[in-house]
Amino acid sequence: MHTHTINLLGAAPGVRHSLTVLQFGSGAGPKATIQAALHADEVPALLVAQVLRQRLLTLEAEGALRGTVQLVPYANPLGLAQHLLGTHLGRFDLRDGLNFNRGHAELAAAVQARVEGRMGDDPAANVARVRAALREAAAALPAETPGQDLKRRLVQTAIDSDIVLDLHADGEAAMHLYALTPQADLAGELGALLGARAVLLATESGDSPFDEACSRPWLLLQQALAPAPLPLACFSATVELRGEADTSHALAAQDAEALLQFLQRRGVIEGLPPALPVPRCEPTPLAGSEPLSAPVAGVVVFHAAVGDMVTPGTLVADVVDVESGALHPVVARSAGVLYARSGTRWATPGKRLGKVAGVTLARTGRLLSP
Q1: Closest CA to 202 of 222, 187, 223, 191
Q2: First to last CA, the chain
Q3: Buried b / exposed e along 155-177 (16+ C-beta atoms within 10 A)
Q4: Which is nearest to 316 in space by CA: 327, 301, 326, 334?
Q5: Overall pTM surpassing 0.90 (yes/no)
Q6: Which CATH number fits domain 287-357: 3.30.1120.10, 1.20.1440.20, 2.40.50.100, 3.40.190.10?
Q7: Gap between the Cα atoms of 203 and 211, Å rounded
Q8: What residues pair up with 298 in beta bridges, in sequence order?
Q9: Could you tell me which of 193, 294, 308, 330 has the fewest CB atoms within 10 Å of its CB?
Q10: How would CATH label the architecture of 2-282?
């Protein structure tokens, strides 16, 4: 294992943050990057990363790594340090209010300018050209704030990977993940290994999350550079490791093993992987995911649990008005699984209370939670 320390732009004199990147393997073969808790208060990812560290050390000592694995055990030291009046706030940058997992660099145009006219008939050679250009474009990214510096450093670390897994958690949730629509088969395979209850697919979510910064350039370049053959050479997914309070050694070991089996199936790790489990869901479009919101301010009382199947008209929650005592129902409009719900029980008007993985809606614009 090699440890790389990346010093981030200082927020003030005497204040410094750094990223730690652990590299396992020789640097040859397929490359995978796994990072934990870009939303720094989603701590189950941090625990899974510690299990992965130990398992990867063992695999490396046994000579079982055919490729390279980069592990970023905490992807957001800025967010880890953000505490306000005893509350950890790791989703948004307190400096400017920006979401740490939104607004990542979109490199396709810069890469296209570097490789256009140089693409040939050999898919492998084209992949190598694009990877080199991605590294160059990522290296040229500017940064004026610590938050921007964090985002560009993470992209620079992962941009030339074959596999990128960004580990998160939701408020209260079943296991679920997000990936690109053209990579539905790989996303379904990963979902089956993890026991996911929802696999949500989009060609663009609308907010430039980290996973799309790594995988979506390949899709855009494949379209822009046709007819030159260019495979989608990076599979990237956001993996939501259940709810923010779901920290246990047993779950962390189970999830780490599933992630390693996925890498084994992709040729990063030696050996014959076990048979793929029966999937617990079929992939569905992210545009069909139904956000359930509070109509008024009040106390939230849930009637449906995470993992429950709902149909149009199912009562998912009440919001109790504390002035009048009136109950304001929150009902599903679509059929599917309630894969996530709010971890708090006080709602302001418009607060997102839950998410249903359905197929009947066709939302447009920004498809992810704020």
Answers
A1: 187
A2: 37
A3: bbbbbbbbbbbbbbbbbbbbbbb
A4: 301
A5: yes
A6: 2.40.50.100
A7: 12
A8: 347
A9: 308
A10: 3-Layer(aba) Sandwich (3.40)
User: Which amino acid makes up residue 147?
Assistant: G
Under the banding of pLDDT at 50, 70 and 90, the label for residue 26 is: confident
DSSP for 340-356 reads EE-S-SEE-TT-EEEEE
The average pLDDT across 262-266 equals 98
Rounded to the nearest 10 degrees, how much is the dihedral formed by the CA atoms of 175, 180, 184, 190?
Answer: -40
Contacts of residue 194, Cβ cutoff 8 Å, sequence gap at least 6: 175, 177, 239, 255, 258, 259
Count CB-CB contacts under 10 A for residue 20. Answer: 14
Per-residue pLDDT of 200-249, as tens digits, reads: 999 999 999 999 999 999 999 999 999 999 999 999 999 999 999 999 99
- Residue corresponding to tokens 């350039």: 217
Q: What are the tens digits of pLDDT across the range 130-151?
A: 999 999 999 999 999 999 999 9
3 state DSSP class of 250: helix
Residues 47-65 have a mean pLDDT of 98
**C-alpha to C-alpha distance for 189 and 184, rounded to whole angstroms:** 9
Q: Cβ-count burial of 87 within 10 angstroms (0-12 exposed, 13-18 middle, 19+ buried)?
A: exposed
Q: Are 158 and 11 in contact (CB under 8 A)?
A: no
Query: Residue for token digits 């790389």?
Result: 4
pLDDT digits (tens, 9 = 90+) for 347-362: 999 999 999 999 998 8
- Give the pair of three-digit tokens for residue 41: 């208060």
Using DSSP, state whether 332 is helix, strand or coil. Answer: coil
Structural domain boundaries in the chain: 2-282, 287-357
Q: How high is the pLDDT of residue 166?
A: 99
Neighbouring residues of 60: CB distance < 8 A, sequence distance ≥ 6: 1, 24, 25
